[in-house]
Amino acid sequence: ARRARDDPDRVLRLVRGGNALVCGATVAWTAVGLALPDSIGRALVGATWVEAQEILLPLGLTMIGMSLIAGALVGVRAFDGTKGLRARLQTIPFQLACPVVGAYVADLDGFVIGMAIGQAIGAVIWWTTFRGLHDAARRATARHFVRGPLVPSASVALDLEAFAVAEEAS
Predict the structure, then answer these.
(1) pLDDT band at 82, cuts 50/70/90?
(2) CB 126 within 8 A of CB 77
(3) Helix 8-35 and helix 49-79: axis angle, to 10°?
(4) Distance from C-alpha of 159 to C-alpha of 91, rounded to nearest angstrom
(5) How many other C-beta atoms can be found within 10 angstroms of the C-beta atom of residue 8?
(6) Separation of alpha carbons 125 and 16, rounded Å
(7) Which of 9, 35, 68, 125 has the smallest C-beta neighbourhood within 10 Å, fewest atoms?
(8) Quick one: average pLDDT of 4-26?
């Protein structure tokens, strides 16, 4: 994506495509976990399966949010890595506060739901940052193409003609 940053629409396609793959894999693994029979779940994690099963969906949603953030982060870095610091600082309060508030309200279930909410908010912040950089890159690219090649103005052409005449005279 970084090598393609001169073509903002290509960066957007690369980020969206990569993000779709990562999110698709995350959705698939979440679905596998949710569809897992109790006997296999108990064989994998033992007696904690009952508790683990209750938080699989919010954990899957948390992982999907993290996948969305990862895609936008790649896009932000492709255009301007310094903007990532601002997005990171904007997401930290949500990613910290949402799980803590969730835990206070509803113990473990609330904590995991809070994590999912924090990641969802983070994904919105990261994608907003990426889209802003993408739009700015498109505007800059459009200005580059609108300018076109430099063509000497009429006054420059006259100056060059006068210079040539002066050179011949000397």
Answers:
(1) confident
(2) no
(3) 180
(4) 59
(5) 22
(6) 16
(7) 35
(8) 93
